[in-house]
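Marked as duplicate of an earlier ticket. Keeping the data here for the record.
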Amino acid sequence: MNIPLLGSGGREHAFAWKIVQSPKCSRLFVAPGNAGTAQIAQNVALSATDFPAIHQFILDNSIEMVVVGPEEPLVKGLVDYLHTQPKTENLPIVGPSQLGATLEGSKDFSKRFMQRNGIPTAAYETFIADQINEGLAYLEKQKLPIVLKADGLAAGKGVLICQTLEEAKESLKEMLLDAKFGDASSKVVVEEFLTGIELSVFVATDGKSYKILPEAKDYKRIGEGDTGLNTGGMGAVSPVIFADAEFMQKVEDRIVKPSISGLAKEKIDYKGFLFIGLMNQDGEPYVIEYNVRMGDPETEAVLPRIKSDFVDLLSGIANGTLDNYQIEISPNYATTVVMVSGGYPGNYEKGFPISVPSQTENSVIFHAGTSRNAKGELVNQGGRVIAVTGFGEKLEQALANAFSTVEKISWEKAYFRRDIGQDILKLIK
């Protein structure tokens, strides 16, 4: 198959790395890609949200399946667009319809979906600017801490955990009245704070059947000990020791099954990945949020553990034949450490040359915010720059292999967290 993969991050490099291992892929294009994807596939200077250009590219390159990495083109309706254009009406696409993508595009929509389908989640109310006084009054009656979520897409940064009533009120005003997160916070979901341990569960679905992929735990805060600002993610670990067989059975019965059947019942066209952000609260699973694509950096820890043919999985999703796919998962650990530009998630400088080892042992380097400068040097181009995934039969080995490679990568002002996986190691011991 000739396959275009849309996106440019570490998730897309991991997808590309996995896709090219399959004999079912003859040519892989990545649009727009990064310096890492350019080493294993053909980068194409196309924006993932330039729908007419994507359609023309499909027609010009005998494309047989499209794989969408990030959420933005899905929320903006890429799948619907392609399925209403000439010669792509029946094109297999890995990614949900625009209505399906609203599960991530609107926190309020997803909470209503959970309520309708009896899926366990935190209590909540939603407010718009005209309801600011009601929102402030609602806050006064809630337990602290309290969670405020921008309704729309905010690049993983639109969630605030407020420890005091004063902070919560000020934040609600900033979000609704001062557009703290732009249009994304024109509506705000105020949600009960759940205690416990977070994890991410990934489900592949063709709209009828589903396969549960390896679970992972990610690390969202910039600082060690989970301190500081939220980021897109600073690392990930898979498998997760606190997601044992009993817990995962609860997840499947109470969350996965009603989610997939709810999509079918509500006639929401959904062929893609459903990322379920969960809280394990005293052994009981609650949904924090849905995302409509694979997570980043969790993908870099999850995909290496899938041993069965990945293009067969993607094809099963897009063609409605997922029931025939037998997923095989490695029992070994994969741990990912993300290296970021100094100053991220705030302002940071770009264009510093990056030194990367030519070979690695028991680890793989996934590029995210990288490019080549005029001299052909590898440079940092984004906030999250490189994700290193280490492998091992035990968590200690996987972490040691990841950090061993991280220590061999350098550029000016590079930063990474040294405590990735340490909390899980303590649980194991």
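See parent ticket for discussion. The radius of gyration is 21 Å.
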